[in-house]
Amino acid sequence: MNQKITFATILVAFSVFFICFTNASPIELSPRAPGSVCYADFKRAISGRITATELWGKTLRITGQLNTGFPNRICKYEFQVTGHPKKPVPSNIIFPPGTAPFQFDLTNEGIENVAGKTVTFFCSGKFIDSARFVLV
């Protein structure tokens, strides 16, 4: 009887050791842990959300989808983040009445470059809508 309890005890101890030390790693070493996140919610002429997530290596990942506000693929759409020049919205993501989901990475950019700033959209030079990036 003592041998069975001892064997069972060793088996449980080994299992606990294996589970605890093979799956656990400090958060600082985990490559999946993202940095800061901010988002801009559009609720007027444009509806949808754009999210900016700071990744490792000073990379900023921009994801989002805008559901309304882009009624025509022929128009020249542009966006501008406060303090930066206007940039064109790629026509391959515009599917009226909105956009397809999109994602792109900006290298050598940090969350401080967009947090608290306003992103504004234009159609052929005319203002459509704007929203402020809010830090989570």
UniProtKB/TrEMBL annotation:
Signal peptide: 1-24
Keywords in alphabetical order: Signal
Domain of life from the UniProt record: Eukaryota
Name by which UniProt lists this protein: Uncharacterized protein
Species annotation: Diversispora epigaea
